[in-house]
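User: I'm putting together a small comparison set for a docking exercise, and I want a reference complex before I start. The sequence is below, and the ligand is LLP. Could you produce the 3D structure with the ligand included, as structure tokens?
Assistant: Of course. I'll restate your input first, then give the structure tokens for the complex.
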Amino acid sequence: MDHFLYRNGVLHAEDVPVPQIAEAVGTPFYCYSTATLTRHYRLFEEALEGLDHVVCFAMKSNSNQAVIRTLGNLGAGMDVVSGGEYRRARAAGVPGDRIVFSGVGKTREEMRVALEGGIRQFNVESEPEMQALSEVAVSLGVAAPIAIRINPDVDARTHEKIATGKAENKFGIPIARAREVYAEAAALPGIEVVGIDVHIGSQLTQLEPFEAAYLKVAELTRALRADGHEIRRLDLGGGLGIPYTQSNEVPPLPMQYGELIKRTVGDLGCEVEIEPGRLISGNAGILVSQVIYLKSGEGRDFLIVDAAMNDLLRPSLYAAHHDIVPVIEPAPGAEQAPYDVVGPVCETGDTFAKQRNLPPVGPGDLIAFRSAGAYGAVMASEYNTRPLVPEVLVNGDQFAVIRARPSFDEIINRDTIPEWL
Ligand code: LLP
């Protein structure tokens, strides 16, 4: 459930009519709901009740500081994957001891920033990275807490671009080598082993792959303890999928996921961390756009809208489906017709949906792409010199611009012309 519903025939974000926001900020824009963010975060909190745990929001899915602060105020930790995200989390007020640092390519500089600023743990993905972290920590005279990300060789059964837990993926160290690598870690100065990390992919719509991975983690925990390592924390990653359509398959609920966690690793006495992104932010956001033209093509009609692939990349990058709804509620029983919904960018790939059945919409009408709160604004670019679209956060009957649309001057003045020109 989210908080984008029709009321009196008009789409609302919580208590705010979407056209009112469009009037104030122009289109396109992203709009997030505080109530939905809160609700989704709490679902995970409730699912893990009874376990010592931290829910670390995967900031890569939505890193606006207002979103981070909303979740941080509820007690959320953060999963960051770059020095930039680390800085954002801190700027939004999240304490270092609630931040885990993931990613295969952390630089020494990023390690230093996190060690100096305070960090809960680094999720280390390779031996060279562990060596580098050891050197940086020693140079600063501190010990870096680490979990080693293991690759359990499990098929997440999701889109190939977002599966991470198969042996052929670049992530983690092969589980077969884990004991060896933990032994190396224990011998390294400046490294304090605190646990095990695993993340097998994103938009998982079944529990079985999680179960397979977590059972392997439980087995490894016992083996490593037998080897003399103190394994006190398990980071179980993110990846629980969301419904992108209101019609078909319903992914497992956080509560079922929590039960699975308790069943597979609950008896180990470890502190559990999870890193959900999409499930918290995905359905907490929409992208609102205006129809520019309706163009009749050869056997098909194109709905040309003012949002484009640079604003919401998922459909062109992953052939992802986002429900599209008119902001003014269609009359009951209104006839639908198929449209290709496209943006203004000069690429055929700038297509949001092909032959999508929509109720009557025309130039000037507002539409909303649903489930756009995760991996939407964060993956946007200024391709075609299109300004990054603004982000708006709604809370009850209030709304605020949480990132303004840049002016063309701001964009153009970022370039500098060399002297010789
Ligand atoms: N933890 C790690 C280490 C991750 O790599 C990811 C996502 C997450 C947590 C959060 O996963 P989530 O709960 O959001 O599924 N841009 C793609 C998704 C990329 C996911 C990358 N890693 C998309 O738009 O579908």
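The mean pLDDT is 96. The chain has two domains: 4-31+282-412, 103-274.
User: Thanks, that's exactly what I needed.
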